[in-house]
Specification:
The chain is built from 30 helices and eight strands. By secondary structure, the chain is mainly alpha-helical. The protein folds into four domains: 1-34 and 270-384, Fumarate Reductase Iron-sulfur Protein, Chain B, domain 2 (Orthogonal Bundle); 37-240, Fumarate Reductase Cytochrome B subunit (Up-down Bundle), CATH 1.20.950; 396-539, Rossmann fold; 545-668, 3-Layer(aba) Sandwich (Rossmann fold), CATH 3.40.50. It starts with a helix and ends with a helix. It binds iron/sulfur cluster (2 copies).
Amino acid sequence: MNPLVMALLLVAALGVFGVSIRGRWKLLHLSGERPHIDRIGERFRLTLKYALGQKRLTRYKFAGLAHKAIFFGFLMLLLRTLILFARGFTDDPKFGYWIFDSGDLLGNFYGLIKDIYIVLVITGVVVFLHYRLVIKPKRMTLSGEGVLILAIILVMLLADVLYEGAGLVLASRDAAGLHFSIWEPLGSLLIPFLESAPDGTLVFLYHLGFWTHVTLVLIFLNLLPHTKHFHIITAIPNIFMQELEPAGKLKPIEDIEGRIEREETLGIRRIDQFSFNAILDFYSCTECGRCTDQCPAARTGKLLSPKKLTIDLRDHLYANQSGLIKANGDKSAAIDDLVPAVIDTEALWACTTCGACEQECPLHISFVDKIVDLRRYLVQEKGECSSTLQETFSSMEATGSPYGVGSDERMNWAAGLDVPLRSETEDVDILFWVGCAPATDERAKSIAQAMARLLNLAGVKWAVLGPEESCTGDVARRAGNEYLFQAMAGANIETLNGYHTKKILTVCPHCFNTLQHEYPDFGGKYEVIHHTEYLAKLMSEGKLTPTHEVNTTIVYHDSCYLGRLNGIYDSPRKILASIPGVTLVEATASRDRGMCCGAGGGQMFKEDEPGDERINFARADQLLETGADTISSACPFCMRMLTDALNTRQHIDIAQLDIAEVLLKSVTGA
Ligand code: SF4
Ligand code: SF4
């Protein structure tokens, strides 16, 4: 075509792109933390499933298909772009790196595939333009940037078709009569419109198509690092380097005592403290809003929006890019504290750590770790949190329970029941970790009582720690008080290890998650079983048989810490379905899309952040819509939140029962 112009274009465009990428690359390394690249095989498998397979987009039918068309189209058309760049340096209009030359077998085949993908990508672009300009979903950022990028893609592809069509007609004049090519169907479609054009016009259109295409590709490339379309480059690495630890697990602050001595910041205060992976998350957000769409805080009108949180952090990072790079890790450089300058305090404290956002994000962007890290700084360095949370921390320190109930009262729930203490029992198969709510909260006590009776009926060798048990520290940890959490975890692990504990049974998904996933970081490694799984197992072994009818229609509410964060959906449903007389119905929002009750992340022990509605009320309404007369759950926190909602709304006709309570009714008839 024109080697000089092509070379100038490439040098200018790639030079500018290189400068942009260099800046973004440096930002990734500000914290000095290394990216996740362990467990390579598992990472490849997940990348295949979620990046190439686009698994998380299958729920969004048309948008998902349109995205797939564009994604795979881009992969397929990359070769075409490289071929056109090369043709800029040669006069051979058929050049295709000697393998994909037009007219050769592979070149012809690729020409056909390319045209099919051009059609698919154009269809995808039209669908997205329809979404942006006509449907306008609330969740999406409907900026002009999105439309501009789609328009560039559209014109870029049409320009290629024009180049191909004009080329075919020019070639046919040379070869006297050769017209349509089944290997270049899109270009062939233009032949009837172009064949009567004079040679000069054809040559002009041929060059116009070519140069428009290559120039737009280079403009597009340079827009990427400055727009949300940066995900075109970062999505696959972000999915590949995602966190592989269990969904409900938080990372510890390592060597917390040493850090305090060295006066190092606990938690995250400034943008440059975020890790390589966190910053790659910021680059990767497409602003699709799927996270916020599922967030219970956002859905009930709170200030929190996980999408906005990510975008605000990203924009703050970009706005300070040159200062951050110059400072190169110098923490005395003038960079704002993130809260409240960038992230609103109210938004930060509205998160229930339910994980709905993380499960939804097609780019596997994480939020809870960032939110907790920001809370850690506020709580531990500035002593800033609500007075009720402060009181909760004090209660945990003084009594070992967020409810402020001392160890001497921790066995009150067991009065009149045959409950063996671990300190007095040698032959124990499983330790029942009762948890603070079932041990001390008036409503939740009956869950522990039902469980104790079921264990005795099944003939299990079990015991409890009784006064030696204290809170796992989950509430403190998720509310940002890592220091208190680590102190409580250390004490509990000492007790558990002192009894050579192997198996632990819990009725609380929060205890389950903390004991199972977080205690191993501090030397507490146990097999932890949630009571829904354990009861299902006892039933399958014939040790518990539901025989008496419990005539009721039940809707089961999925606890976030049991379902979404630990994948336990089936056992509770299996138990309920096997009870005679029970009709099981599902809420519209259930299983992995089940809505949080509003208790997690320390919310249970603080006042709600301002919003349109309380989360537990919204969730109770969803469950009531099913027409069920009983709401069943498998988490004492969920039970408390839903009971409060039902009582406030005066739904005294609706029963609220834990799975263990329903099963006990059927096993004993009482
Ligand atoms: S974890 Fe739950 S509450 Fe927190 S931002 Fe995500 S969806 Fe919202
Ligand atoms: S964080 Fe993920 S789900 Fe949320 S807007 Fe960005 S890409 Fe979409």
